[in-house]
Fold each of these.
Amino acid sequence: MSHIHELNGKKYVIEFLDDLYIQGWGLEEELYQGQSDFQKVDIVKTKYLGNMLLNDNLVMTSEKDEFCYHEMIAHVPLFTHPNPRKVLIIGGGDGGTAREVLRHKSVEKCVMVEIDPLVIEACREHLKITSCELDNERLELRVEDGIKYIAETNEVFDVVLIDSTDPIGPGAPLFGAEFYKNIKKHLSVQSIVVSQAENAWSHSENQKSLLSILSNDFKWVGLYNYSNITYPGGLWSFSWASDNLHPIKDFNSDKVKASELSFKYYNEGIHTASFQLPQFFYNQLQDFLKL
Ligand code: AG3
């Protein structure tokens, strides 16, 4: 199936949520088309959101709103941890998460493990806004399977970020129990794990399953939210899990001020507000939260 469709004589880039609903953006130009061993990789230029990366016809990020996701996956855990020095990113081939992680001066080393070289290649060429720090000397960029990496590495991390696709294709094992058991073995004394956790409207079963997997291994487990314009269903979530760092109780907002970083989505208020779940959302997940 293609991601480009014609409507009233005009071309649109369209993401289908099965046969339930679609969303699309006017196409300006097709910039990159590739097929890797893992997935179809496309970059298109849209009239509304600039360049956009799609994996298997699902929108991963766009120039205009990438900051929502990348600031929230990185800064919430990094400002929760008192001194994050070693960070692991699983996935994240577009580079946006690494870019935000590396803005933290305390981070001495960030290991990023992306399975698909084509995603990195496409983004280096056409998504410079996210890929701009991929050659940073504090980044160890590994092109290999994150599942295998975490099973075999001897490294230990303060913050682990799972920057995944949906739980289908190459992203599916990143929502599994064995993966998190192995992550648990590579955490430092004070540590926190944050994962891309889908959408409360269309993926509540995935959210329940992820939270119950995390609950087996961690003392505290929860979700926090962000919204962007590219992913179907409006409000999207990250899960968090930790034995010893609570992202609200251990959050010191003075650290945000002291960092002198500027943001486009994240701020001290959003940090704590993002953990408040709308009531329908809380109701469907309450048995799976461990707070
Ligand atoms: N990861 C993809 C989040 C899920 C998007 N799903 C969808 N469009 N159906 C984002 C990668 C950003 N580094």
Note: The pocket of AG3 is lined by residues 15, 58-61, 69, 92, 94, 96-97, 163, 165-166, 196, 231-232 (CB under 6 Å).
Amino acid sequence: VEALKKNPNWKKRKGPVVLVIMDGVGYGKYKEGDAVADSKMNHLDAITAKSPHTKLKAHGKAVGLPSDDDMGNSEVGHNAMGCGRVFNQGAALVSKSIETGAMFQGQAWKEIVENAKKSGGAVHFIGLFSDGNVHSHLDHLKAMIKQAKKEGVKKVRIHTLFDGRDVGETSALEYIDPFEAFLKEQSDGSFDARIASGGGRMWITMDRYGADWSMVERGWAVHVHGEGRQFKNAREAVETYRKEIPGIIDQDLKEFVVAENGPTGTPAPIGAIEDGDSVVYFNFRGDRSLEITAAFEEEKFDKFDRGRRPKVCYAGMMEYDGDAHVPKRYLVSPPSIDKTMGEYLAASGVRTLAISETQKYGHVTYFFNGNRTGKFDEKLEDFVEIKSDVVPFEQRPWMKCADIADQVMEAIPSGKYDFIRLNFPNGDMVGHTGVYQAVVCSMEAMDLQIGRIAKVVEGAGGVLVITADHGNSDDMYEHDKKTGAVSLKPDGTPKAKTSHSLNPVPCIIYDPAGGNEYPHKAGEGDLNEGLGISSIAATCIQLLGFIPPVDYDRSVLKM
Ligand code: 3PG
Ligand code: CO
């Protein structure tokens, strides 16, 4: 891309533009369960009161999802903020590709099917087992199973990663039962489709950003080797673990292997992955797909001992990394997100710092840059990762927000950066645990850090843009869809909601020094209304003294 045009009237600020992304922090629709409103956030409240602010849409079509019933998520949210426009995202592209038949005419699918037919082996499907539409959708899986049968595949094995994070926290059986019925319907003398292994998505396989490779190792053991505790079927596994570990939610369920009829009378796994088999990892979202893909694809691999590594034909649902071109084979092309803000800023000589802790590090780098892991310009960009704790986050709800703030507070007055973007994971990572008190604690911890950062921005003559990628902590209880009443557990306490919300998110422009990009007044109504989070890109570009690209979505600043 070309350098951005300078705004000739721009009055340069002394300090940098600091973009704070409060992951999973929206404006709640219901009073009950809105842990954001319920927290003491004196700093954020004070900043909001004295700054122009508005609400931005962060779900559904505003972030490229199929419909406005789809909650936002970090991938599409950071894509939108970083790319300044809305692209049709994975969920929509995969559905379309199945609908038009393009997926099944593609080379990758043909190879998957041909390989299994030639070897007489199985086609394995591994992925997130829900209709959350954040990483995957069961309809995609079902369509592929039907098509495999139609094309003469004889054996299919499914490796289910229970969700409870993008869907109801204990909903696994609601997915298993109808799916087993579907498999039964499909199976006949010449087609044999079964669930073979699985476990909770936060316990096996779906780690991200190298936070905890032991998850992938446990997944590899059950999916590939069929090594793990044995059960008759998935339902039995779920019921057993729920009984043994009271209060356990689906995302944390332990691993299982379905076994029966072993040669020596002892049960044998029904779906270990063998030489000659085909494997489809059916998640379309990349962050939690890259590690298991590396285990299947990489010749040299040192994250854990893979033991026997079957020779398989492997495909991912999408290309997960557009820089490194991973995986080698994929079923659907990802959105071609081009001309990102990061690329423009690098072309314009803007010095940038992107920082978060492990759990969201890739969000402010990889997702923000349109699903590319690399930098646009080594000299202009610094990416900083602070190691996340490897603990259930309800035990440490403050996470690393203070450490992130420390580094940002050093960077702001250093004169080294024009643009600093950071992500505070608290609202999202703790929100996903469903533990209300921990969420309140996480919000208050984050607020302290926002107060510290705001003070340094003031001193340095910078400007602070505070926003979020989607809601989560603002909606911590399940509500009846029709009446809106809080859903209760048998013991009368509210049923926790662990997934994201459909709520709008804040956009606050705290500009103590005052620029001349927009009328500098306090209160609501000073900013353009009714926009989505894709407007954050043009907003930051304006605050940095440039004119946004013409095809970018409108900034919130009234010029
Ligand atoms: C996850 O991957 O943790 C959830 O499915 C979505 O959360 P995120 O979009 O906030 O990362
Ligand atoms: Co989340």
Note: The chain has 16 helices and 18 strands.
